[in-house]
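Entry 14. Two folds queued back to back today. First construct below, sequence then structure tokens.
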Amino acid sequence: MLDQSLIALASAAGAAVASAAGTDAWAAFRERVAGVFRRGDTSGSGLVARRLDRTAAELEGADPQEAERVRVLLGASWQTRFEDLLENLGDAERAEAAGQLRDMVTSARRATNAVSAGDGGLAVGGNMDIRAEHGSAAAGVMGDVTLGNPPQPGPERG
């Protein structure tokens, strides 16, 4: 029986698999997951690799309206796999595997929360609050801006 901290870790690892699948970081992440399961037993590594590939394929093929539900179900499935792995290890191996899972979850969070923007764009990785007060202008990205009163209409000057 696993303690609550290991169950929470298995849950985070399962969610990380479901979140990383299909991203630019997937190939490296997939190898890390397979490495955690390998743990000296290479006979099961092919099965884990196929399951990881199937996870990515299921998410890729999911209807956009169903994608989040599929992601949650796949995350729960991987949580169970991680819990089974941890339960079947001795204390020392379990501690080592837990450390690998923590590192894996941390790296997956960094990779999947990364933001980027093209030329002239603004990328924000968290909350952004923009305010304009007292006749000023504010925006995330601004082109040419002129503040002040416009010229008065009248006859054109030549």
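Second construct, same run, same settings:
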Amino acid sequence: MNVVSTIAVVLLSNAAFATEQHQHPTMSPYTEETGRQIKSLSEADIDELMRGGGWGLAKPAELNGYPGPSHLLAMKNEIGLTQEQVHRVQSIFADMQRRAIQEGQRFVAAERELDAVFQDRSVAESQLPALIDKAEESRSRLRMIHLSAHLEVKAILTPEQIAKYNELRGYRE
């Protein structure tokens, strides 16, 4: 009976595995995204962009020892920022966020425009370069806004403060 049970388990497992492997082999990983208002952006992406959030655009700076103003302000006491440094970082952050909100709105609008021509089936190949350039130039400006803020912030910190920031953020060399 033990051998028969083992054989039955193996056969059933193989059949279940084979069935699982052959179900919907052409199913798109994007099926859950068809209801988005802008297909290339999730609601969370749109919210992040509209509030001036970083959207991961400053990772080259953040992960290479250039602290971000928002995180730095949240950890100002642990890092030992002086009052003068806090004021300067607040100013950098306010300027960055103001500019990022404006550019984020432009980027979302450009992505919405690109999505709309596909959605209403009015897209012409001749108009694609301009639509894509508009969105990508905006994304590039957004990235510059965020990366330059990291660069500005690093210039007012000591090496010890940067090391403490990296330690608190969990970054190791």
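Quick look at the second one. Confidence is low (pLDDT under 50) at residues 7-12. DSSP finds eight helices and no strands in the chain.
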